[in-house]
Write a structure and sequence with these properties.
41% helix
């Protein structure tokens, strides 16, 4: 976690008392978080034990004021999303040491790191259901922040810290992605609310299937196909950054069965995979630079996405739309 907030048990007990969820038995940190501080809590009330997740917001959410209403919408639609617990006075946020906190139910399941095709298909179905659920939602949600301007500014900030070949790859990729985002036909692609961070560490599974989707802090209005591109880069690539055709087709086919993708979305999917890979390469580089300066910032390896960018640039991924009907 970037700036993990240490919990004092007395302060924590005072905080959860405002929620009326029982007496604290124990708490322990979640180890997968990067941007916020997350703790698991176990409480007991009337002889019943329950587990919750306390999220301490270390930096503002991209989704702004839409974060909790979006989760509420997903819960009402029956999506596997954790319900936000309200305080005894009905508030969705509380504070801990001056920072906003959210308490939510802990969902069952575990993260998967070598997903099966069935799990990839479950991700595709969830993404389609999420897009359909939010399609007509008129709550003001900010646009996706990693636009062309963000890409260009982030590249300038990172370029001089890269070796020559990586810097050259960054420059060439940036030109291609900015050209993509500037096209008139791209602006006609379907848009809506995207999760923006559908990585393996944000989904939970058990033996029966998908049990939870986490971390909607990157939710924003953007191109729907971008969500699938983000997912494919993490779920459908191997350790060298190669996009697996079979898994990628399974992801898109499962999605297409619920929310049909347009021919234009299929045609531009390879370029959106490059766009998504560049976006996360730059974001990880930015965090890595902050870590080098302060020495106490946790981050994921930027080179993982550098390899994916390199593969996308060298090998065009062709997707026959007829495969989605199989």
């Amino acid at each position: 976690m970037n700036a993990i907030t240490q919990l004092d048990v007395l302060d924590l007990e005072d905080t959860i008392a405002r929620y009326g969820v029982g007496d604290l038995i124990r708490y322990w940190p979640a180890v997968n978080g990067i941007e916020n501080s997350n703790y698991f809590l176990r409480t007991t009330q009337d002889g019943r034990e329950r587990e919750f997740v306390l999220t301490i917001i270390e930096q503002p959410s991209n989704s702004g004021g839409a974060y909790v209403p979006l989760l509420d919408l997903c819960v009402r639609a029956g999506l596997p999303v954790a319900e936000v617990v309200r305080t005894l006075t009905g508030q969705s946020y509380d504070t801990f040491n001056g920072k906003p906190v959210i308490l939510s139910q802990r969902l069952p399941g575990r993260h998967v790191y070598n997903p099966t095709q069935l799990q990839v298909e479950a991700l595709g179905r969830f993404t389609a259901r999420f897009h359909n659920t939010t399609a007509n939602w008129d709550f003001p949600v900010p646009p996706y922040p990693r636009d062309g301007r963000w890409l260009a500014e982030s590249a300038v900030a990172s370029r001089h810290y890269l070796p020559f070949e990586a810097s050259q790859l960054l420059d060439e990729t940036l030109v291609n992605v900015l050209s993509l985002l500037g096209r008139d036909d791209i602006r006609q692609l379907p848009t809506g609310i995207v999760h923006g961070d559908l990585f393996r560490d944000n989904l939970l599974f058990n033996e029966r299937g998908l049990t939870g989707v986490l971390d909607f802090h990157h939710a924003a209005r953007g191109y729907l196909i971008y969500d699938l591109a983000v997912a494919a880069n993490d779920w459908c690539t191997d350790s060298t950054g190669v996009l697996d055709t079979e898994r990628t087709t399974a992801l898109l086919r499962a999605y297409h069965a619920i929310r049909p993708v347009t021919p234009a979305e299929i045609r531009f999917f390879p370029m959106f995979a490059l766009y998504a890979a560049l976006s996360f390469w730059l974001s990880r580089l930015a965090v890595a630079l902050r870590r080098d300066e302060s020495g106490n910032v946790r981050c994921n390896n930027p080179e993982e996405f550098q390899r994916i960018v390199q593969h996308h640039c060298a090998h065009f991924f062709y997707l026959d739309e007829r495969l989605l009907l199989g």
